[in-house]
């Protein structure tokens, strides 16, 4: 989105660079030879995506300087010390989190089971303040491009599962690249999540070619291809993909295998760890509101997520969807979703937390509420309008192109109204 500004690369050691945005510093990954100290660069999700000419960068920065300061002030005013009255145990837990002490499972459960509206507001304000302390007002918005709804798996939650009788589509390399090009050139996006069902009809070579071509547009290629071989992910890393989204879905092994027949949590975790090891910026997380899940499962999910130490936390509610065995499940409440974001922030204070598109389906105000409860990044769907409705992993996704343009505008307005600036969120480590 046009909401990304350049910064100056002020240091570079091995592949870790530091970018300066009006005096604020963010760490980013820099591939060998891609930039040198003194260059102006655009970074997304903690990764350098392109250099930009000095004169162009300086002009953008002159235009932004004043708004940047104003946005910072606005963010600071929205995170002024929350009003701390209420239940003593509740306040003690928040105080402990504030001191960065590890919260016990019992304490985390206590937070998750809080229903009192005033206390919940305090929890969200607290998490928001923590986000501000750790990350300042940086925000990032990625585009997601869903390129195939074919899938060999039969996951019980997913609307594009193999046995759902659904019209299938598969974009060609040219169509994917053309859409990404439109996203970069016309809409100003700088990061693309390329997502699909587990579709083995694209050859490794074709996927490598897609990654190379999309990357050459000067953007972050973020993969979300599911359970594919380590060898393929390695090839795609070598081709230039730098981030990957692979959720562990749930920390409950039995539930995992029931919901994802023929697969195990162990294998999924092994793949997630491998992806981090080979250098991908990792986004992972879980779904909540699954049948058979308890509050303990949710806390275990939050803790497993923290153990995996991803660069980005991406969790979202189950949206019961037609064509799936879970179609009649009850929708989880928006408050639970916000509590999960806030508790994630308390457990991993420096995390980058995404407000997922599924949460927006659950609650139209979710973006704003999530950003005010500890989250700092967003996603917008850039899938071509002709096929968007067919990428029905869950129901209720809007599919008009006009709506996308409106959404971009609304997102920029929202980020501005909350005082979030377009400097990159940076790497955590
Ligand atoms: N096939 C790939 C990527 C596509 S699904 C994979 O499995 O990783 C991307 C994410 O959408 C999944 O990780 C899952 O957490 C989420 N998802 C699938 N069906 C959903 C539903 N009905 N409601 C909410 N989220 C869902």
Description:
- This protein has 15 helices and 15 strands.
- It is α/β, with parallel strands linked by helices.
- The strands form three sheets. Strands 12-10-9-8-7-6-15-14 form an eight-stranded parallel β-sheet.
- Strand 6, helix 5 and strand 7 form a beta-alpha-beta unit.
- Helix 4 crosses helix 11 and helix 5 runs parallel beside helix 6.
- The model has no long low-confidence stretch (mean pLDDT 93).
- The site of S-adenosyl-L-homocysteine has 19 residues, from loops.
SSE arrangement:
Elements: E1 7-13, E2 16-21, E3 24-29, E4 40-44, E5 47-52, H1 54-78, H2 88-98, H3 105-112, H4 117-135, E6 140-148, H5 173-185, E7 191-196, H6 204-215, E8 220-224, H7 230-238, E9 243-245, H8 253-259, H9 265-277, E10 281-284, E11 287-288, H10 295-308, E12 312-313, E13 316-317, H11 334-347, E14 354-355, H12 357-362, H13 366-371, E15 377-381, H14 385-388, H15 401-417
Parallel strand pairs: 6-7, 6-15, 7-8, 8-9, 9-10, 10-12, 11-13, 14-15
Antiparallel strand pairs: 1-2, 1-4, 2-3, 4-5
Helix pairs in contact: 3-10, 4-11, 5-6, 10-11
S-adenosyl-L-homocysteine (SAH) binds next to loops.
Tell me how many strands there are.
15
> Alpha-carbon distance between the termini?
25 Å
The ligands bound in this entry are:
S-adenosyl-L-homocysteine
What is the strand content?
15-25%
Structural class: alpha/beta
The rounded Rg comes to 21 Å
What's the story with the biggest beta sheet? 8 strands, parallel
Spatial shape: globular
Given as residue ranges, the uncertain stretches (5+ residues, pLDDT < 50) are none
Overall pLDDT metric? 93
> Largest beta sheet: what is the strand line-up?
12-10-9-8-7-6-15-14
Q: What is the count of helical runs? A: 15
Helix and strand pattern: EEEEEHHHHEHEHEHEHHEEHEEHEHHEHH
Helix content, binned percent: 40-55%
């Amino acid at each position: 989105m046009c909401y990304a500004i350049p910064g100056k690369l002020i240091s570079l050691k091995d592949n870790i660079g530091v970018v300066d945005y009006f005096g604020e510093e963010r760490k980013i990954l820099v591939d060998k030879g891609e930039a040198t100290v003194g260059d102006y660069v655009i970074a997304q999700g903690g990764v350098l995506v392109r250099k930009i000419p000095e004169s162009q960068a300086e002009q953008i920065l002159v235009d932004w300087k004043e708004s940047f300061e104003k946005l910072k002030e606005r963010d600071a005013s929205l995170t002024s010390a929350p009003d701390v009255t209420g239940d003593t145990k509740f306040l003690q837990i928040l105080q402990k989190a504030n001191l960065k002490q590890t919260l016990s499972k019992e304490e985390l459960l206590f937070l998750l089971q809080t229903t009192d509206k005033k206390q919940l507001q305090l929890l969200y304000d607290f998490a928001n303040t923590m986000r501000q302390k750790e990350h300042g007002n940086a925000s990032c918005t990625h585009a997601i491009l869903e390129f195939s709804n074919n899938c060999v798996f039969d996951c019980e939650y997913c609307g594009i599962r193999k046995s759902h009788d659904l019209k299938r589509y598969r974009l060609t390399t040219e169509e994917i690249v053309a859409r990404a090009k439109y996203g970069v050139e016309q809409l100003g996006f700088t990061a693309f999540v390329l997502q699909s069902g587990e579709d083995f009809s694209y050859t490794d070579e074709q996927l490598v070619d897609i990654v190379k071509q999309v990357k050459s547009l000067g953007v972050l290629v973020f993969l979300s291809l599911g359970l594919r071989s380590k060898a393929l992910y390695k090839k795609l890393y070598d081709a230039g993909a730098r981030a990957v989204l692979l959720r562990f879905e749930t920390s409950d092994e039995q539930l995992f295998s029931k919901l994802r027949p023929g697969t195990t949590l162990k294998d999924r975790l092994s793949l997630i760890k491998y992806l981090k090891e080979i250098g991908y910026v990792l986004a992972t997380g879980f779904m909540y509101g699954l049948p058979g899940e308890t509050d303990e499962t949710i806390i275990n999910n939050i803790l497993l997520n923290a153990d995996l130490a991803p660069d980005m936390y991406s969790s979202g509610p189950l949206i019961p969807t037609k064509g799936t065995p879970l179609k009649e499940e009850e929708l989880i409440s928006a408050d639970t979703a916000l509590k999960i974001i806030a508790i994630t922030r308390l457990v991993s204070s420096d995390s980058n937390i995404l407000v997922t598109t599924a949460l927006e389906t659950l609650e139209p105000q979710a973006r704003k509420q999530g950003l005010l409860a500890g989250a700092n990044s967003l996603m917008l769907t850039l899938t071509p309008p002709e096929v968007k409705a067919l990428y029905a992993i869950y129901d209720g996704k809007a599919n008009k192109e006009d709506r996308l343009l409106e959404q971009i505008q609304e997102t920029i307005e929202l980020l501005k109204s909350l005082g979030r600036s377009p400097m990159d969120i940076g790497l955590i480590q």
